């Protein structure tokens, strides 16, 4: 007797989706409008200054940022900037799942005594540490959510 494997959509989730190739210009152009919209909303929710959000985005000029906010910017974000946006959105989503809304939206602005932050605000640590620190913060939030 032989058994044939039949995929069951209810239990077979397959492989995780392949991440987009951010080195591809067409992919960056396709993702940019949603990324800009998301980061504009995130900056509002987290009450970030233009200096803070520009630093988090990796050196986007304030002039470009203001044009983005007004919907008057039509460029494509760089691979670096899209990676930063992805990390920030992941942090935002993780915080919303972990904490109630007032705390989740203030967390990045609160001094944190954890070893990753050394008494500083997570926001400042991410600005100073760039993408590597943003990814560490995201892993930290994910670990808290997972009970690690």
Looking at this protein, list some descriptive labels.
148 residues; single chain; mainly alpha
Give a short overview.
By secondary structure, the chain is mostly helical. It is built from 6 helices and no strands.
Broad structural category = mainly alpha
Number of helices: 6
Q: Tell me the total number of β-strands.
A: 0
**Average predicted local confidence, pLDDT:** 89
* Cα-atom radius of gyration: 18 Å
Poorly predicted tracts of residues: 1-6
In angstroms, what separates the terminal alpha carbons?
45 Å
Helix-strand topology string: HHHHHH
Give the biggest sheet: none
How many discrete structural domains?
Answer: 1
Shape estimate: globular
Percent helix among the residues? 55-70%
Strand content: under 5%
Q: Would you write up a description of this structure?
A:
The protein is an all-alpha fold. The chain has one domain (25-146). It contains six helices and no strands. The radius of gyration is 18 Å and the shape is globular. The chain starts with 24 loop residues before the first helix and ends with a helix. 24% of the residues are buried.
SSE layout and pairings?
Elements lengths: L24 H21 L4 H7 L5 H8 L9 H20 L2 H6 L15 H25 L2
